[in-house]
Specification:
By secondary structure, this protein is an alpha/beta fold. The chain has seven helices and 16 strands. The strands form three sheets. A seven-stranded mixed sheet has the order 6-5-4-3-2-1-16.
Length: 256
């Protein structure tokens, strides 16, 4: 059975229990990392995913809490002797900057480095990223401060659909992205109307999409005043979403 593992659940400022939001979908023949938190290789190892099992990485946008782990991940896998090629997907605005970052780390001088193929996506609805025997993954542009994509992941064996909003304010594309999803993962960093959503807005979007279950992610756990309790977000979403609502936590695992 394919699974989704939440490797990090926090918004941009993490704490000891919550890394920045990133996750991995693991099937029979592939493992797909969505964004790249601070130490993904150790987190994957802790849930039984070897660095050589990682086949693909999708970067939703170029903000530090979503891409800062890329250099250390690639460097660690190289130092550990990886030879298997890795495919990396993202919008050109993101991948161009990731390549520049890697050049700043002089990765072109790392001897015997494994192949990395960058696949630059079009910023359009229902853009196909990955299709293999495990998953069909498509993307939709969403509404954030920089060009950003949300994702829809379909298990080709079971038909189970996972939708992930990524960082976004409410926008019409989210309805199609999450249409009839079995699990809708929606960020709840705050309803600023520009680049993020409140828990109530996440519930309204999931309800409009006809999703069966809502998982709240990318929430604040620490601000300038100290620790933040995210648990009130659950009843806020429950007030407008008729299905089950759950808070994502680091290392939560779901059969998908």
């Amino acid at each position: 059975m394919a699974r989704l593992v939440i490797l990090g659940s926090a918004a941009i400022v993490p704490d000891m229990e919550h890394d920045n939001t990133h996750m991995v979908f693991q099937g029979d023949e592939c493992a797909v990392l969505i964004d790249c938190g601070s130490n993904p290789i150790a987190r994957m190892r802790s849930v039984g995913i070897d660095y050589n099992d990682l086949t693909d990485m999708i970067l939703t946008h170029f903000h530090p809490d979503h891409v800062s782990g890329v250099p250390i991940l690639l460097n660690n896998m190289w130092l550990l002797g990886r030879r298997r090629a890795l495919r990396v997907y993202g919008l050109h605005q993101c991948l161009n900057r990731v390549e520049d970052t890697m050049l700043a780390h002089a990765w072109d001088e790392w001897p015997d480095f494994f192949p990395v193929a960058f696949h630059k996506l079009l910023e359009r609805d229902n853009q196909l990223l990955i299709e293999n025997s495990d998953f069909r993954i498509t993307s939709w542009p969403v509404k954030h401060y920089v060009p950003t994509i949300g994702l829809r992941v379909e298990n080709k064996r079971t038909g189970f659909v996972t939708a992930y909003s990524c960082d976004t304010a409410p926008t019409p594309s989210l309805i199609d992205l999450g249409r009839d999803a079995d699990l809708f993962i929606h960020e709840v960093a705050g309803g600023d109307g520009i680049g993020h959503s409140s828990a109530r807005q996440a519930g309204e979007i999931a309800a409009a999409a006809g999703a069966r279950k809502l998982l709240l992610i990318h929430y604040e756990v620490f601000d300038r005043n100290g620790p933040v309790d995210p648990t009130p977000l659950i009843p806020e979403a429950q007030a407008v979403f008729p299905g089950p609502v759950q808070m994502a936590h680091d290392f939560d695992t779901f059969e998908v």
